[in-house]
Design brief:
The protein is mainly alpha-helical. The chain contains ten helices and no strands. The radius of gyration is 33 Å and the shape is flat.
Length: about 290
């Protein structure tokens, strides 16, 4: 009976938490898309006209007016808006102001640019805290032998219990993970090239040793030096291949392990790699937090 009561409470807590997460998600979207205050929009309009006029002034062939004879300047060349801003700046500004005034008659909700980004960061922090609470409810239910599905868009930092650093807030189906997989592919290509060089060095050493076997005694000094150099080359090639192979293995394991772990946690199935195994391997922690 106690377990049933706990699960009922967990379900209610999870539903309540997810409603709050949804509210924060909507709030963040609102902050990102709502308009600037009208004063800021008017100022941006003036700055746009001034920049366009300066751009046209730099490109207009005014210098032709200072020459005697020659081809007269064609002031119609270039962007039309830039030309209008150059010749009629006040009129263009006035028309933009009128157009903005008409738009703002709708009385839209606005957010100053000076506080927009800080407000978004605060909302994102609140959302992440809620998602960590959500994950704790799910893991507590798992400890009781019950399953509560995770959201497909859950923040990996909450699912994996990572730091709050926004640098590691990845969409695991995005280009960022694809970049990791591309790096792994590149590392494998380097390892393959190192392996080919090692094979070439090995073949060269075999050829020289075969030549030496033709001499029962008094092996030429020049051949001995070639064999010594070939042995050194092969040793260096082997060391380079081992290093490249280790790097390729590590690079290949990281995206695969992370993808598998996140997807497994979201879908409530056992991951191939446990969280502790990922931490011990370095896949979670230093390797990720150093990525831009």
């Amino acid at each position: 009976m106690k377990s049933q009561f706990s699960m009922e409470k967990a379900q209610k807590d999870l539903e309540s938490t997810r409603q709050k997460i949804q509210a924060e998600t909507q709030h963040i979207s609102h902050l990102e898309t709502c308009w600037n205050p009208v004063e800021e929009s008017l100022s941006r309009a003036d700055a746009t006209v001034t920049a366009a006029a300066a751009r046209y002034r730099r490109n207009a062939p005014v210098y032709l007016l200072a020459r005697e004879g020659g081809t007269p300047p064609r002031f119609t060349d270039g962007e039309t808006f830039d030309m209008l801003a150059f010749f009629f700046p006040e009129q263009v500004k006035a028309r933009l102001h009128d157009a903005l005034a008409e738009l703002y008659e709708q009385d839209p909700e606005t957010v100053p640019a000076a506080t927009r980004h800080s407000d978004i960061r605060k909302a994102q922090a609140r959302k992440l805290k809620l998602e960590r609470t959500e994950e704790s409810i799910i893991t507590a239910a798992e400890a009781e032998g019950s399953t509560m599905p995770r959201r497909s868009d859950a923040d990996p930092r909450a699912v994996l219990d990572l730091d709050d650093d926004p640098k590691i807030m990845w969409d695991w189906d995005s280009a960022k993970l694809q970049d990791l997989e591309s790096e792994a592919s590149g590392a494998r290509a380097i390892a393959t090239a190192r392996r080919d060089l090692m094979a070439e060095a090995s073949q060269e050493l075999k050829r020289l040793n075969l030549s030496r076997s033709e001499y029962r005694k008094d092996v030429p000094e020049s051949l001995s030096r070639e064999i010594e150099a070939a042995e050194g080359k092969l040793n260096r090639a082997m060391a380079a291949y081992r290093k490249a192979s280790d790097m390729a293995e590590a690079a290949g394991a990281l995206p695969g392990a992370l993808r598998n772990f996140v997807e497994a946690r979201r879908m409530n199935r056992p991951p191939t790699y446990s969280r502790d195994e990922l931490r011990r391997s370095g896949a979670i922690g230093t390797s990720i937090t150093q990525r831009p």
